[in-house]
Write a structure and sequence with these properties.
By secondary structure, the protein is α/β, with parallel strands linked by helices. The chain has one domain: 3-Layer(aba) Sandwich (Dihydrofolate Reductase, subunit A), CATH 3.40.430. Helix content is about 20%, strand content about 30%. It contains four helices and twelve strands. Strands 1, 3, 4, 5, 6, 7, 9, 10, 11 and 12 form a ten-stranded mixed sheet that branches. Strand 3, helix 2 and strand 4 form a beta-alpha-beta unit. It is globular and about 50 Å long. It binds NADP nicotinamide-adenine-dinucleotide phosphate (NAP). NADP nicotinamide-adenine-dinucleotide phosphate binds next to strand 1, strand 2, helix 2 and helix 4. One of its GO terms (biological process) is folic acid metabolic process. Pathway: Cofactor biosynthesis; tetrahydrofolate biosynthesis; 5,6,7,8-tetrahydrofolate from 7,8-dihydrofolate: step 1/1. It catalyses: (6S)-5,6,7,8-tetrahydrofolate + NADP(+) = 7,8-dihydrofolate + NADPH + H(+). Pfam families: DHFR_1.
Length: about 190
């Protein structure tokens, strides 16, 4: 059996006042600078040649325009039990969350991949929150009400503690298109329970 090399599993999302994240298969808001922050975060690697893995639910994958791809330093895994071929611009198709994590943790890619970024939707976030390698949640607090039909799952805020400051993450309140928002990071404080 192949050895599995532990990789950080990190969630990234923007959530509004009631933890909503989506409406009608799209983002409920237009915040281009926040989206750029998302792209900068997930494409960041420690040195040239390294890569990150991005794990997508099927609807989330298809909600992004093809013009967004390719993203530098990223290999994409799409999760679906019904698709039979890897979607255009993606690299892997897997049927469950643990299989997606194994893409990064086992040879041949375990030497290459640094971070496993979880980009939603709800079920994928839920699975990731339960994973023992999950250490950080990057949650942008969109400080407004939006009508949403998809929500970020409840999580244990005793286990995942909001950081007062986090390296590389702006601390001041941002504003775009009349919407205030704040970048936040929650860090896992213990590893035994979720
Ligand atoms: N605000 C944000 O930061 C943010 C982030 C992400 C998404 N969103 C929004 O959220 C919405 C999309 O999220 P969603 O929750 O509706 O859908 P989703 O998770 O993107 O897609 C759901 C589908 O993905 C597959 N899937 C998901 N989890 C799986 C798993 N663990 N194993 C196997 N297959 C899995 C299934 O496909 P099959 O049915 O083919 O099996 C499932 O029907 C959009 O509105 C999007 O804009 C917002």
């Amino acid at each position: 059996m192949e050895m599995s090399e532990k990789k950080p599993v990190r969630l990234i999302a923007a959530v509004c006042n009631d933890m909503g994240i989506g409406k009608d298969g799209k983002l409920p808001w237009s915040l281009p600078s926040e989206f750029q922050y998302f792209l900068n975060t997930v494409t960041s690697v420690s040195r040239p040649g390294k890569m990150n893995l991005m794990v997508w639910g099927k609807l989330c994958w298809y909600s992004h325009p093809e013009s967004m791809f390719p993203l530098p330093n990223i290999l994409h895994v799409v999760l679906s039990k019904t698709l039979s071929t890897v979607p255009d611009h993606a690299h892997f198709l897997r049927q469950d969350f643990d299989s997606a994590v194994r893409v990064a943790a086992e040879p041949p890619l375990s030497d290459l991949i640094e971070t496993i970024w979880i980009v939603g939707g709800t079920q994928v976030y839920q699975d990731a929150l339960k994973h023992p390698w999950c250490d950080l949640l990057y949650l942008t607090d969109v400080m407004a009400d939006f009508d949403c039909d998809v929500f970020f799952p409840e999580f244990n805020r005793t286990l995942f503690k909001k950081q007062e400051r986090f390296p590389g993450v702006p601390n001041e309140i941002q504003e775009e298109n009349g919407i205030k928002y704040k970048y936040q990071v929650f860090k896992r404080e213990a590893v035994d329970t979720v």
